[in-house]
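note to self — DONT lose this again. spent like an hour looking for the file last time. sequence + predicted structure for the chain T wanted, 317 res
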Amino acid sequence: MSRPSASNTDTLSPSEGAQHMNIGFIGLGRMGLSLARSLVSKGEVVHVFDLNVDAVEKLEAQGARRAESVADVCQNADIIFTMLPGPKQVKEVALGTGGIIENLRSSSIYIDMSTVDVDTVDVLFQAFTAKNFIFGDAPVGRLAAHADKGESLFMLGIASEHLAKVEPILYKMGTTVYHCGKAGDGTRTKLINNMMVLCYCQINSEALVLAQSLGLDLNNTFNVLTSTTASNGQLKEKWPNKVLKGDLSPGFDLALGYKDISLASNAGASSQVALPVCDAAKNVFRMALASGKAGQDTSCLTDFWAEVNDCPKPRLK
């Protein structure tokens, strides 16, 4: 993976003088809506489509152009992004009847930003390459709150000769782009990244519930944990703004977290790499979902772990 070069740093604004491109955006969920909104706010021409009409109308009111179908997006866009819940939806939109592959213009580029499994991204790459279309993947790093502020990170997989067209658009949605390699390498990197992020959810939860059960002042303990090598971005940035203040609204829905950690577990199984910690964390996600926590943020694992252990739910004061 290549790190951002001197011209691609967090402090640099999107490339000036980049070639204008009409942009298509399909999938306006929690993350997709914010990413598309960033493009619109930068003055880009963005054709948006989602089955959720309310989301489309929100962006239309802010200057986006409503598309009536996937085909409509394809007919009007030079570069198309999809941000969809999972492999099933991506394959339906990209490869299904009336999908992108049937309607993409020969000169256009298709970038999937969803978190999918390795097999899915490879099927997409092979299918679009067979028709001489340009395909890449650019799954998103950082939290939904970062996307709201246009501060996302992208793990881009695409042939190097297409970077000049794709990177400037990504920088209009975020601050950091890592070129991870060929198409599919972005997804592979994202699976590894999310495996670590989601395992931290359980580690953080065990640590905080133990601190509570030992009678420690949680504020003092939190300050220590976020000031030593025990610190992680989830604990330091997300936890105090979500579960530790009682906000369980989904920045990253627990069900999507379970989907993502399952993708990592499956990738380990298919490549015959043992992932015991990942598999254990996946099982906790499954138990939390079974307990009725679907629709809550992944940080709700801390409340779930407190309930399992009959302990008070940790909260910062």
